[in-house]
Fold this protein.
Amino acid sequence: MHALTFDRFGSADVLRWTEQPDPVPGPGQVLVRMKSVGLNFADVYRRNGNYHLSGSAPWVLGYEGAGVVERAIAGDSVFPAGTRVGFADMPHANAELVAVDRDRLIPLPDDINVDTAAAVLLQGLTAQYLVTDSFVARAGDVAVVHAAAGGVGLLLVQMLKALGAVVLGIASSEAKRDAVITAGADVAVGYDDWVQATRALTGGHGAHVVYDSVGRTLPDSLAAARIGGTVVFYGMAAGDPDFVDPRLLMDRSLTLTGGDLWNVLTGPDVRRERAAALFEQIRQGDVKPHIAKRFPLRDGAQAHAYLESRAAIGKVLLTL
């Protein structure tokens, strides 16, 4: 098989399309022939050497995607060869063939194509728990969404609107803010005036919830939340946040909570139930995945450079 590999840390130029041995599925694993792979900033961080990588070079990036079962577990009637499947958290997805734990497989309904699955599983399931677990969003709640034109952000805006929330999205360019409004946000602003815009939208009271995936913005997110409000911290795109004095939380009765998808997807039944609910939202039109651009997997270096340019609105896919 071929895979997108790298043997040293660095810019997108370190990525190479190389021939590699076919993976050998271990106990409880199936072999999946990939059709579409989701690209995430975590892949960039790993390529740069900022995230831990197991094993030795050459390394293969990628954690989510969709394809077809090539080699099934003997006697498996649920995932036989030829079954269309997706996954959100299995390494080495940047390859033609991937050994995937059966427990992590998500069956794809006939009306969910492989590009849609690769575009929404990781980020859609993230947005889903943010509005149902980290904070239970209700009709009339005012929600602020950082990085609202990103892969999670656009899905989060749509899910909040489906629940009846009033949404203020923050994005760094006019084109991105236009996309945020198209996704359903009531207001879209830049990073220079979003705190003031939140206060104006809420009559000075502040937001019920602020979803912060930027990190360095955490003090402003706490300031933009109303008394008794919640800040959901689930990412550090711009770096580690400053430390928070717990007296601030006490003085304004604020809740600061963290979020991690892997604490939610606790087993195969849970992940498939949540994925089925996500697919139903797509089916009903409440969630419409936005694919920024598709690149052949062999051209993965171009895809990484495009993602790092911050020009992408929505999801970048690598296709086979």
Q: What stands out?
A: The CA atoms of residues 278 and 284 lie 10 Å apart. The chain has a mean pLDDT of 96. Residues 2-120+264-319 form a domain with the Quinone Oxidoreductase; Chain A, domain 1 fold (CATH 3.90.180.10).
